[in-house]
Amino acid sequence: MNLQNDSITAIGFLALLIFLFLYIIFSVLRDVIYFFLIHYFGSISLFISKEKQQSILAELNKISYYRKLSADGKEFFYHRVVVFMMNKHFFGDGIKLSDEVKTYISASAVQLTFHIRGFYIEHIQLIRVFPQAVWSRMVQHNVKGLTTGGGVMWLSWPDIKKGFDFPEDGINLGIHEMAHAFKLTLRCDTTSSHRICKSITQWKNNSKISFQKLQEGDTSFFRSYGATNMEEFWSVNVECFFEKPEEFMHLYPEIYFPLCKVFNQNPMNTNSDYGI
Asked: What CATH number does the domain located at 188-276 have?
């Protein structure tokens, strides 16, 4: 009897270990698994309703970046947006979280990672959305957006919407904050051999003169907020990369092309889904 009980206990313990192992694998590869099921198996209806699918697509069609994609590119972008929405926790702080709100925020992330297969902005877990700029004790002033080292992002919805309503002014809050989260996901350091990290290092080395000029008051292209520090300069660069690519490339090719390598895309190449 004791032998039988011991066998049952051992089997139960082994089953628990297998379950925990599979859960860890799923947690690590959750984005990839969901995307594989949705994009390659056409199982999107298992996760979201037809009505919600139509709502998301209607909002995506308002976004300039998405509209310029081919049919295949649009499908890929759309599925990445759905996966992002499924795997992040959105919290409305004084605002209703509609499909419009979630779609625009998710599209900000997908725009950066569109041509980086298998890469998702995993650093961000919680996205708090506000009806306006909000006071932050961390920085001691009102903020439109904030990305923390702990995986939380704060966003002012009106400013997110404005960023996409004016897609050529070089100011996009969603892109700006996702650019911060993008780097936090990579966790690059001076010894990193990751391809993207190497390209970021090249961008940083090539942009030192431009950053210095901005700090000295030259706001002829980059906005003054980029002079705050190198991290803000990075995010301001990414905004301009996507919203003013032709002018950016003409004025600063030495930092534009490293960004092409970082994101594996060229925003000027609208004929081939922004391929590099």
From this structure: 3.40.390.10
